Amino acid sequence: MDDSSVGRGKDYGAFQRVLRNLDAALKSLSHILLIDYYQGFNNAIGTFGGVLQHIHDSQSRTAQMKISLKKCKQELLEKRTDLLNMWHKSQQHKEMLIFLETIEEIRTVPEKLKALVNSKHVYTAAKMLVDALKTVNKEDMLQIGALDDIRRTLSTQKNALYDLLVEEIHNHLYLKNSFCENRWSEYIHDQQKLPEIAIKPKSFMDKVNSSEYHNESISKEEDLFALDEDDVVMEDPDINPETDSYYYMEIIMEALAMLGQVPAAIETVQERLPFEIYALVDKTIADVEERHSEQYIISVTSRKNTLDDSAMYCLDKANSETKNEILKDLLWTLYSKMEAVLRGQHFLETCARRIKKRITTKEVSSDPQDIFHIYQFHEIWQPVQVEIRSLLQSYLTSQERTPTALQQSTLTPDDASGKSGFSSTREKNKQLFRFTESPQDLTLEQAYQSVRSNLHSSFKKQVPGFNFNESQKARNAPHSSVIDKYASDMASKGHKVLVKPDAYNVSVLLKPTMAFLQRMNEVFPNYDDQSSEGFGSFLDDFAINVFLPQIEEKVMQLIHHAAVGMDAFQDERNYKNYSKFPIVKSAVALISIIQSLCRIMHSMPFHTDEYVRMIEVVLLKYYEKCYHRFYSMVVKGSLFGGKEFNVTEMNINTSGDWAQDEDLVCLLTQNPLFDDDNKIDSDFVESLIQSEIKLEIKLKGDRQLEAEELIFDSKRLIALGRLYHSLKWFVREIWELRTSNQPTNKSIPGATNILGENEANSEEIESEKARGSKRWSRDDSKEVEEEDPSPVILSLRGEVAGRFDTLLTTYQQLAETCLFTLRLEARCHTMYYLEMVIREGNYYLEDETYEPDPYVITLNSDLMEIDDCINASLPAKDEMFAFDGLPALIIHLLISEATYIKRMNKNGVQKMTRNILALQQNLSNFVPSSQSSTLDRASKYYQLFNLGSKGIVQSIRESGPLFTFDEYRVILGLIYDINREEDSEPKSATVESFSTSNNRSSSAEYSEWLMKLDEVMADYEI
Q: What pLDDT does residue 907 have?
């Protein structure tokens, strides 16, 4: 206790008081707390104990820290060399730990790679593998011998991953993977064009909405990708990248770039292309065969019952529907796959160029050509077009006709078992060719050196153990030979043919092929800057060397079958589909051939001049057959329907000869009934008929026609009518092909003409005569209810159009000759029989007769038969033309031939009147009554006999002359019997004297009345 002045002892009493007060308060408070807050107080005590314990722990740690700090201070005060050694040891321990961790991580790489590859995350796998290889190949890692096994394992896995990536990219390129099915489509029934596939590279689809990007994508191939040149596509570990085929191929290319194997992969893709395309075609063929196997068996059994006779002549419609469906399924499906493959190849090429550009940008100093070579797109297209060409050829012909193919067929003949050319296999290890003692050419040798080096390096990669040293090269140089040791069967065996090769398959082959080529032009408009020929250029050689020769051979076979067969000129069974009157089979067949050639020409619009030439050949060949047919029908004798003959060495009937007389043909073509002229000038027609009669009498001359000059066989007459109608229908159909797009005819949607308006007008003027033949069968032809949806147009111009006009004019002339022959045959029959009626008939009768002359009856029968033959083949207007003017000819013959009547009396006049009446009644069946009634003129002529000489002169004075002076003179001669001949029987002197006196009296009277007739006729100019 400090009791000093500065101490606190004096306050002790106060302190005691406060203490007592506190104790009292605490007691009071304790009593209250114990009673009212016991539980809370109890908890507070526990909490306080815990806090107190933490305080003690903190004090202990603080004391320990203080000890440690003192220890550190002591250690820091030690020498530096000891601390440096300890730091170095620490660093070594750290490096050893890092090595151990790295080795442990590398050891797990194979398992991780396997998992990534199974999940198709190949880019991540490639990146991991490359990183692992870089690690194990570091300098410090190479010193660790325990890593050799891991190093070999990783190298093996790198090769395996490369092989896997190559196989995966081929699986997606050639649609082997199930995820590629959305890139192509199978054939749908009645498919007419390749379907649009909307599958595009995923990055392109994501950014296609950007207008700026979309505009740039039009001109840049690289813009198929959304990434920049320096960017690398990244994988999403949560999805399967294989579901997007294009994205997956891009990932594979980036993985190959990561492995540094893009050049090798590109080279492998290019080398395997022919084999993969072959396998693709083979797989497609197998799928199509499986789909159609049952249908094809059913169709083969019913093919014979359902095939139309005329279908075989349509090159594009002769196959059965099932056969066509098989080819359509194959081609449309295959071309859809081909399009997908080519799109994939183009995509792959663009990926490779993008990678190359990125590498070039990073390695500025290196030449881009030294990095790696990327194939041009035309290098991909070439094997594809070869496969397409081979496929097309295998369905057109079973034997190639090109020079190369002929050489191959010589090198690989069919074996003794008789296998066909397209199913045989080539002998392996067979020497194909040898260069023996070839001259040395240094320029050629230098150019060939690079090719040879590439070939050797390629063989080294593909064939283990292959070695070709310089000594071997020098030893084998003088006798270099090529052995087909590495050839596969597929190069010689070809594909399985689902449908028998035939030129008829062209109808199905062309449309899908042209659609495919058109799609290629649209998708790849500038696929190769070095080539300007386009995708369809390969078809040019194919068309010249294979397609067109095969079509031409088939056309020649069809022409021979149609025009040379025994039934070539028989009636077409279904002629009512074409015309109201029968048409010969050969005409329908040849028109079918020409129409199909036109359709093919429009389906394959190049080398059209070859199709036109084939059509010209068809026309020329058929005209030759029709020309021989005409002569076989008008030849004298019994050659009708016989073997071939030389038309220049035979005699033909008079009607056939006259029908080719130019002057007579000129008169006949002016007949209004022939020319379908509705405006008929009666005076002109009468003058025309008389001119024709005079020319026919002139052609006949003074001789009398003989029976062998006439045609009595009704089959010949019917055949002439059939040939005429068939030829005019044939020519009309050809003109329909040439003018089906003109506005004067029914319009066909989509029909266009390659002729300009001026050219068309000029050709129309030049071809007016030929086009007149189109008029012939327009009225009697069968109306087509439904138009062909694909117009058949034969568009010609220039010299070709002129040749066609000449051909059609020649057909027209031959057809006209047939019709003229029918007309002239009826007139020749009339001349022959009427001359017999007058010259051999007896008209000096003792008794009256009630029957016409037998020759008149025969003539009427022949005319009726000719009319029946014409009606069986030709329309009514041609019948009218055939008999038009015949009554005028009969009148002329009856009057002009009267001078050959020896004697006549009233009974003879009555007989002649009955003859005329019989002829008139018969003619009324097939000529207008206005013409048949003109025979009254002949009847009136012979009735002059009954008038006598006085009555004749009196009728002329009263009514004027009806006949000429010579015609009146003949009747006067008959009245006075001046043509009477001496009887052959001997007569007595008295009778002879009486007869002589009567003759003198009749001659005097005849001379007297002849003078009077001359005086009366002098007033008339007749």
A: 92
